[in-house]
Amino acid sequence: MRAIVLLRVSIVLFAVSSNAQSARAQNEPPAKKPERSFIGEVPKSISMSVGETLQFVEGEFLGVAEAMPEEKYDFVPTIGKFDDARTFREQVKHVACVQFALFNEFEGKQPPPLCEKGGSSPAKTKAELIQYLKESFDYSNSVVSQLNAANSLDRVDGRYAAPTTKLGISVASIWHVTDHYGQLVEYLRMNGIVPPLTQQYGVKVR
């Protein structure tokens, strides 16, 4: 008799548990699928993993450089502590110079001097600086394409972000472009310009 009672209790508990699980399943949102990379397909190599991210941040920086009118290229903030800050023009030239410098070091070449001050490029006008910037990005992308599992930890020496590895110098370039992108976004907004990346979401100047 006791065994029959226990069996009936077990059946009831199983039914209650099943109903509860079914109710939860109906109320819970469906499980999320793994998100795809923000830059497209999941990279299949080290060079793609680094290179696609580098190309993304370079594209955003180029967009900011192109968005600023040439007459504003010598703009530098005056409210706050900006005594030693670079002008918009100097920041663009600095970034281009450093891209050449970092990937010269990656390839074991002599980097340009004094990138802190823009380097030795004669580029001055907006058109010249945009061209210089594009050339530096084309170069950096071509070098990053050489990155692989066999050479990623090869030592890199030089005065820009070294000593490090080929992977390290490539990641440093992403950080550097992103750092100056963030600064120039503020320069744009101070001049009433919404950064191109933000414009696609329909956010207005306010």
Structural summary, described in words:
This protein is mainly alpha-helical and 206 residues long. It has a single domain, classed as dinb family like domain (Four Helix Bundle (Hemerythrin (Met), subunit A)), CATH 1.20.120.450. Helices cover 56% and strands 2% of the residues. It has 6 helices and 2 strands; from the N terminus they run H-H-H-H-E-E-H-H. Strands 1-2 form a two-stranded antiparallel sheet. The longest helix is centred in the first third of the chain and has 26 residues, at 2-27. Mean pLDDT is 83; it is low at 1-37.
Evaluate the radius of gyration. Answer: 27 Å
- SSE arrangement, N to C: HHHHEEHH
Distance separating the two termini: 79 Å
User: Helix- and strand-based class?
Assistant: mainly alpha
Gross morphology = globular
Q: Number of DSSP strands? A: 2
Quick description:
The chain has 206 residues and is mostly helical. Helix content is 56%, strand content 2%. The N and C termini lie far apart (79 Å).
Defining key terms:
206 residues; mainly alpha; two-stranded antiparallel sheet; disordered N terminus
